[in-house]
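Input record, target 12 of the design panel.
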């Protein structure tokens, strides 16, 4: 081999090594860039998971409100049911409790959840309806504990019942001014229940242009308070029902179920249900839907859930930083 041939062979070998090194470097750079893309996607997913967990934590909290009854009010309402206390006598005692009307504690998180603007239709999520029902359940069961009567339960069927009733009210096309017994009786026929509806119709112009979830909780609270203490016009029917003391053993002795709902106009409904013992008798129809009596459990996002989501985001961010550094090094 001549010197020229040897030099050519050496140059070709060097070029091959350079080409191979360049190819390896390009592959390494491409792999590093792909890793950055993958880690950016992981960070985005982790951020979305954290945002969802934070939103869930805010939306799934159920505020704690307290209703404390005076002993003389409890005694007076019981006396009214038995016929030993007049409506006027009860009204004088009950009026003292109206100061609780102002004890509602606003919820900062719910004040940011807008459910209606400029008169738009109010529509709540399934979770929001369930939590509003559980809030009303807590208030009513506080009342019943002080009367020594049976607590109400929130079940999937009691929530479904109210959804059916709300749909009926909404289909009427105008805000209700009184109980719609046609709608309620139709729902009872479906579920095999006996209804006892309490409805809180907002005062005209009460809702602002922007309605928040907190407004609906406030409306629920003040509605229950007013039905307890300012119910003479309804012969104290709402108060007796809330207390679980209607003087009717078909209701009072039965397990009662509660569902809450909100019409498109902001009317808050509380349906206190008992299973109808007369199903199949005297023309009472057989229900088309089985009634689930299993209590629902609140969905709660815990502090541990939030910490886990935050840690996952931190780890994903660290991996992204490392991947970007690898691109620079490549």
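The sequence produced for target 12 reads:
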């Amino acid at each position: 081999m001549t010197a020229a041939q040897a030099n050519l062979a050496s140059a070709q070998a060097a070029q091959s090594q350079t080409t191979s090194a360049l190819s390896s470097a390009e592959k390494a750079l491409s792999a590093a860039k792909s890793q950055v893309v993958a880690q950016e996607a992981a960070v985005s997913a982790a951020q979305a998971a954290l945002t969802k967990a934070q939103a869930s934590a805010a939306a799934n909290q159920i505020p704690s409100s307290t209703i404390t009854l005076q002993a003389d009010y409890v005694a007076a309402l019981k006396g009214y049911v038995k016929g030993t206390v007049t409506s006027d006598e009860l009204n004088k005692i009950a009026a003292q409790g109206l100061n609780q009307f102002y004890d509602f504690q606003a919820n900062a998180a719910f004040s940011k959840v807008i459910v209606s603007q400029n008169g738009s239709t109010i529509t709540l999520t399934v979770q929001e309806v369930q939590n509003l029902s559980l809030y009303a359940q807590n208030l009513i069961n506080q009342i019943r504990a002080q009367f020594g009567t049976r607590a109400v339960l929130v079940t999937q069927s009691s929530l479904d019942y109210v959804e059916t009733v709300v749909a009926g009210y909404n289909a009427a096309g105008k805000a209700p001014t009184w109980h719609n017994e046609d709608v309620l009786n139709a729902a009872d026929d479906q579920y095999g229940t006996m209804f006892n509806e309490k409805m809180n119709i907002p005062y005209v112009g009460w809702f602002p242009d922007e309605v928040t979830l907190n407004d609906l909780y406030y409306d629920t609270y003040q509605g229950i308070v007013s039905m307890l203490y300012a119910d003479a016009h309804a012969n104290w029917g709402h108060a007796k029902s809330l207390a679980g003391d209607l003087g009717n053993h078909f209701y009072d002795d039965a397990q009662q179920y509660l569902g809450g709902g909100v019409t498109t106009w902001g009317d808050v409904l509380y349906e206190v249900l008992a299973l109808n013992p007369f199903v199949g008798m005297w023309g009472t129809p057989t229900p088309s839907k089985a009634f689930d009596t299993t209590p629902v459990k609140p969905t709660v996002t815990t502090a541990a859930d939030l910490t886990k989501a935050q840690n996952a985001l931190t780890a994903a961010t660290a991996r992204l930083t490392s991947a970007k550094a690898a691109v620079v090094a490549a």
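The first helix runs from residue 3 to 59.
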